[in-house]
């Protein structure tokens, strides 16, 4: 229990002084009748009413004490929502959708790198429950597909629609620096303590006007961590599905190259990490590791309401006053 106006409680120590003053007044009050000899009266045994005559004053003091407590407004706090801790991070996902992401070397189902990356990214998003997450896609240019949001349903629908080259709307190439800059622009006004860019690519920067390391330096200034993920086969070539008018569809190995040195420098400069994924399970493990690394505790104070108890103390005081008045006018009445 707590008191909204506790200073009223300072009046409680004055009650003994009130009791002493009332007793002093009673003792020094002149009697209405005077007797020359009190010997016979002293031989009379006091009645029970006389022995309990001080109870009237006690009731009055208790009533005053209850009124003082009521004036201090006693309250009890009721919890509506429990205190808890939630995880909160601002995250921008930068997903490579260039032509090289159509290689089929990450699983045995012959799905493209982009399809596997989308599936793992979707699982990552579903594990987060209080982060603002946005999506940037890039090839020869970079575009914000979804600004940071807590509406994961909308974000997942947008993620599902991502395709190679976004069906011809994005020029081919790999603009890693430009994609990073797009993410940093979205994080520019973020007030969250932890800001993260997760950049997934299978190539090297060959498009856009921004150098990846320059973008990483800006991220360092903005206190943004960059986690870079290089995905694809480590053999230097990957199978691509090729259409031929003569033989139809067939797989053809083509040379691939990931600029791991630049990706690693970007991560190191910003306090993040560089990961390499050559298959779906490795990619999943990487996202799980990032999920564990990027958790910031934010205290949720919950919701409370205060219940006032002064009406109860006021009613009790009124009851004491009524009882004191009743007894002082009946059983303990003092005749003049």
Give structural notes.
There is one protein chain. The protein has two domains: 2-28 and 44-80 and 303-329, no CATH class; 85-299, von Willebrand factor, type A domain (Rossmann fold). The protein is 38% helix and 24% strand. It has helices at residues 15-27, 39-42, 48-51, 55-71, 113-127, 152-160, 176-187, 212-221, 260-270, 280-293, 310-329; strands spanning 2-3, 74-81, 84-87, 90-96, 132-138, 142-149, 195-201, 224-231, 237-244, 248-255, 274-277, 297-300, 303-308. The strands form four sheets. It has a six-stranded mixed sheet, with helices on both faces. It has a three-stranded antiparallel sheet with strand order 1-2-13. It has a two-stranded antiparallel sheet with strand order 3-12. Helix 1 (15-27) runs antiparallel to helix 4 and helix 7 runs parallel beside helix 8 (212-221). It is rod-shaped.
Task: Name the features.
alpha/beta, 11 helices, single chain, Rossmann fold, 336 residues, 6-stranded mixed beta sheet, rod-shaped
Gist?
With 336 residues, the protein is α/β, with parallel strands linked by helices. 38% of the residues lie in helices and 24% in strands.
Tell me the strand order in the biggest sheet: 6-5-4-7-8-11
Taken together, the total number of domains comes to: 2
Please state the average pLDDT score.
84
CATH architecture of the largest domain: 3-Layer(aba) Sandwich
Shape: rod-shaped
Low-confidence stretches: none
Write the H/E string, N to C: EHHHHEEEHEEHHEHEEEHEHEEH
| Number of strand elements | 13
Helix content: 25-40%
CATH secondary-structure class of the largest domain? Alpha Beta
The CATH superfamily of the largest domain is known as: von Willebrand factor, type A domain
Largest sheet properties: 6 strands, mixed
Task: Output the radius of gyration.
Answer: 41 Å
Give the strand content: 15-25%
CATH fold naming of the largest domain? Rossmann fold
Count of discrete alpha- or pi-helical segments spanning 4 or more residues: 11
């Amino acid at each position: 229990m707590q008191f909204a106006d506790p200073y009223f409680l300072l009046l409680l120590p004055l009650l003994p002084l009130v009791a002493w003053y009332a007793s002093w007044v009673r003792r020094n009050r002149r009697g209405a009748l005077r007797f020359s000899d009190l010997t016979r009266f002293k031989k009379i045994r006091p009645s029970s009413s006389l022995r309990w005559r001080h109870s009237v004053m006690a009731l009055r003091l208790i009533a005053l004490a209850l009124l003082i407590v009521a004036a201090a407004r006693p309250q009890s706090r009721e919890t509506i929502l429990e205190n808890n801790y939630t995880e909160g991070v601002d995250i921008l996902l930068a997903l490579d959708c260039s032509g090289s992401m159509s290689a089929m070397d990450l699983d045995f189902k012959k799905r493209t790198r982009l399809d596997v990356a989308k599936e793992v990214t979707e699982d990552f998003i579903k594990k987060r429950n209080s982060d603002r997450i946005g999506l940037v896609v890039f090839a020869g240019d970079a575009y914000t597909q979804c600004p940071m949001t807590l509406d994961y349903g909308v974000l997942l629908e947008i993620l599902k629609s991502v395709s190679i080259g976004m069906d011809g709307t994005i020029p081919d190439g790999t603009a890693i620096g430009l994609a990073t800059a797009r993410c940093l622009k979205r994080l520019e006004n973020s007030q969250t303590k932890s800001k993260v860019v997760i950049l997934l690519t299978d190539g090297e920067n060959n498009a856009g006007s921004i150098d990846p390391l320059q973008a990483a330096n800006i991220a360092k200034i903005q206190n943004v961590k960059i986690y870079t993920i290089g995905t694809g086969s480590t053999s230097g070539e990957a199978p691509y599905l090729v259409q031929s008018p003569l033989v139809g569809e067939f797989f053809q190995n083509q040379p691939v190259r990931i600029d791991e040195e630049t990706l690693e420098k970007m991560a190191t400069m910003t306090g993040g990490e560089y990961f390499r994924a050559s298959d779906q399970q490795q990619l999943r493990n990487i996202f799980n590791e990032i999920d564990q690394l990027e958790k910031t505790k934010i205290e949720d104070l919950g919701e409370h309401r205060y219940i006032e108890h002064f009406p109860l103390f006021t009613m009790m005081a009124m009851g004491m006053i009524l009882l004191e008045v009743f007894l002082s006018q009946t059983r303990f009445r003092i005749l003049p």
